[in-house]
Structures are given as C-alpha cells and as structure tokens.
Amino acid sequence: MELFRSYNQYVRERYGKKGWRISVDSGFSCPNRSADRKSGGCTFCDPSGSRPVYLDDEQTLWQQIDTGIALAKRKYKAEMFFLYFQSYTSTYASSDKLEALYESALSRADFRELIISTRPDCLPEETINLLKNLKARHSLEVWVELGLQSIHDKTLERINRGHDYRQFLESFAKLKAAGIKVAIHLILGLPGENDSDIKMTLAALSELRPDGIKYHNLHIPEASPLFCEFSLGELPLIGNRHYLELVAWSIERLPPETIILRLTTDTPSARSGRIPGHFWNKQKFVNELNALLAGRGSFQGAHYNESVSEIS
Ligand code: SF4
C-alpha cells in the first residue's frame, strides 16, 4: 500500500479507469532561452527542454498525439487520455496563437484533462483567462505545472532561472483564483543549498497547499552549463538515501490531498550524460519510500500543520 497520494490513485479515484498523459511539444521554446534575454537558460537545462524521447522532430501536433495515444494503449493499456504540453514553456506565445494550438490539439481526441507546463513569468492575464475559458468550454480539468525549483532567490539567481519567488507566488495566486489546478516543480540538491534551505522550500510550499507536486533529484545533462561546475568538482550531489529522507520529510508535511505527480527525475536511459549515474529507478524509489514511511508509522500529512521550527 502506498503511504502517499500518488497520481495513479488520483486518476483511479476520480475517473475509475486507467488514464495516461499524452505529451506533446508546442514548439515554442522558452523565454529564458530567448536571444533577448541572453541568459542561455537555466544552468541545468537540457537543450531538448524535457521533450519526450518518443517524439520525432518532424511530427505535426496531431501526429504526436496519435503516436502518444497508440503507445499508451499498447504499452500501458490506457483507456482515457490527458493532453500534456510538456516541453519547454508551453505558454510562450500570444493568447490567440495559444488558443489555436490548444483547440487544435483538443479536437484530435477525447481528452479529459489539459496540462500545461510553464514558468511563473510567462502567464499574463490573457493566458490565464484563456485557460479558464478552455476549462469551461470543454468541461475539462485544467492544470498548470509551474516550475519553481526553490523559494530562495539567491539559488534562482545562481541557476539562472530568470524569475524570482515573488513572481511565482503572484502567478500561483492568479491561477488558483481562476480555478486552475497547480502542480509545482521542485529540484532538491541545487547548487549552494543545504538541507535547511531545501526544507525551507518544502515547508513553504506545503503551506500553499498545492494541488500537485513534482520532486526532482538534480539531473545534469552533458550539454548543460551546470555540467562544467560538476566536471570541475565544485558541485556536491546528494545521494539516493539523502534524497529519500528529504522527500519523506516533505511528504509527511504536505496536506493529505496534494497529489504526488513525480518522485524522481524522469531521465530516459537513452539520453546521454545521465548524472548522477546510479540513481534508483522509479519503482525502487517508491518501494524505499513506502518502507521508510511504514518503518516509522508515518504517511503523507502525518506532520501537516505542525510547526517546522526545527529547521536549522
Ligand atoms: S524554464 Fe525550462 S526550458 Fe526554459 S531554460 Fe529553464 S529548464 Fe530550460
């Protein structure tokens, strides 16, 4: 039995059958990698921008959807589908262009949820209104996956995020006010952060009561700027057990209803430069997490609402 609220559990409870996220690429790139900013993007950024490996560069949007649905049916026995704009920043266009893109994709299959992955500084009022309207027009659940990584501005600056924590809080509040579900992306083990910094982030986000959370261990693609820091030996990495303890600490302090959408970085083995190279696979991590929580008679939300003054 899982001692935390997994995404599969949410789907089962809500829809009563097996659903699968169909990942597509909007082709929009990312403002943090744009020529105007000259920033080069987040230092951990994979140039592919989290593009699913099964997608072919030449495929149209509809072809991506058809490929994803065929794969989900064949490999995972999925019975219903959620449309997931996963790569780069999927709101990085005018609201007219976004509307045309989202509508076209939604018309291709009977999708039950629309999930958009983006950044806190790429959600103007018109885009949030568009998402709100799509939710009403299609009777869909609409999620935004919002990348934050850390609440500490010194870390966000160091990893070149191009936004601060205040911008995240503003976008989070606007999305919630519009009835959009929000899942937050975090990375544990960022450069310059110790356990106390990480726990401050985890505790602050728990207080926000997000609809969902995605935990990531730091992954360093060979083509990323962070790889240089790593190669020079200037970047200590946290190991499996250490990361497990931090995730467990967080889950115990999350609201019971928050959905855990991801526990570790989803790095396809086919991709080069897998660092750290010996990280547990997903199932092993879930088993270890359940064993750790069970061993101390704990579960998601066991310490929710308790003071976290022990952070030091
Ligand atoms: S926001 Fe995402 S796509 Fe953009 S630079 Fe950062 S990691 Fe890369």
Q: Secondary-structure map with pairings?
A:
Layout: H1 7-15, E1 19-24, H2 61-76, E2 80-85, H3 95-106, E3 111-118, H4 125-138, E4 141-149, H5 153-158, H6 165-177, E5 181-188, H7 195-208, E6 212-217, H8 226-231, H9 240-253, E7 259-262, H10 282-295
Parallel strand pairs: 1-2, 2-3, 3-4, 4-5, 5-6, 6-7
The structure holds iron/sulfur cluster.
Describe this structure as you would to a colleague.
With 312 residues, the chain is an alpha/beta fold. Helix content is 38%, strand content 15%. It is built from 10 helices and 7 strands. Strands 1-2-3-4-5-6-7 form a 7-stranded parallel beta sheet, sandwiched between helices. Helix 3 packs parallel to helix 4, helix 7 packs parallel to helix 9 and helix 9 packs across helix 10. The two termini are 33 Å apart. The mean pLDDT is 91. The structure holds iron/sulfur cluster. The site of iron/sulfur cluster (SF4) has 11 residues, from loops.
